[in-house]
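BUG: 3D viewer hangs when loading the predicted structure for this chain

Environment: internal workstation, default settings.
Expected: structure renders.
Actual: progress bar stalls at 90%.

Input used:
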Amino acid sequence: MTEFEGQEHIPLPDSWGGYLITPNSFEFWQGRANRLHDRIRYRLGDTEWIIERLSP
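Structure tokens produced before the viewer hung:
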């Protein structure tokens, strides 16, 4: 739909409410054999996302 293309915000009805969630980290987990699970975290630094391997 191109009606709102280029606009920063889409107008909502006054009766709508909600929360704005701004994440500062994400963790991705992939199970592996022998509990050697692959865990990677993306953490928001000052200007960019930092990628950290948590395990194995």
